[in-house]
Amino acid sequence: MLVDTHSHLHFPKYNEDRSEVHARMAEFDVKTITIGTAITTSRSAVAYAEERTDTWASVGYHPEHVTSDYEDEDEKGALDEPYSITELEKLITSPRVLAVGECGLDYHYFSSEQPPSAKGESKGDLSQMKADQLAVFNEQAELAVKYQKALIVHSRDAGEDMVQAIANLRDKFPNLQIVIHGFSDAWEFAKAYLDLNCYLGIGGIVTFKPRKNTAEEDILANIVKKMPLEQLLLETDCPWLAPVPVRGQRNEPAHVRHIAKFIADLQGLSLEKMSQITTENATKCFNCDFTS
Asked: What is the model's pTM?
């Protein structure tokens, strides 16, 4: 069995062939957690998981939505309701909810070099937007602690601030299970998160050729090769970032097997052993028996 710990399977991208997608999950014995990114998409994630035995959910509010009116074409309606920790708390009580997130810090669209069409309309000046994202992140972290759920963290172009935020959380909540979703940053940040007892969620990017001039220690495959296996989780982040050999296609949970095989080869392990290790990690992190 394999656990895809981060998908967006309830998004519209799968409206035309959901039964086939779940059939392929069954064929390759894959379970998944479908992730909310706003109040609306969190609510639909929970409803989706409650109807399926192979899918669980996470509820959270993405940092991009805190500081801009940007929404991805695959999550239309994400901004139909404002952020509300009270509304998230209503959703977290479902037995199918395993985590809070994805939430965190995202400075990618703060750059003046980003076109307005990409970043949407910003809400405040730079320092205020960073403060707003951090406040919403901390509020969601405390919700995860209150209900003993894992915390799924999104970080983009915010490495140092994110590490500090996680360090602060770790001081206050030493037993909180923290996942750094879609990790693809430099080794210095990987080491910092690992030292803070976080899991690294590794997706299809690990199978891509590294960008030119990337330092050897910062190549994601090299990071994964030397990281402790007990802190490794697998994810697809589907419908995006399909791994080699299906890169460029719509991603789906069954493709997590390609990521598992790639990492197994890096580690000199069989696919079966990699499946066992990462399933045990997911079981511990999310306090869930994915076989039930």
From this structure: 0.95
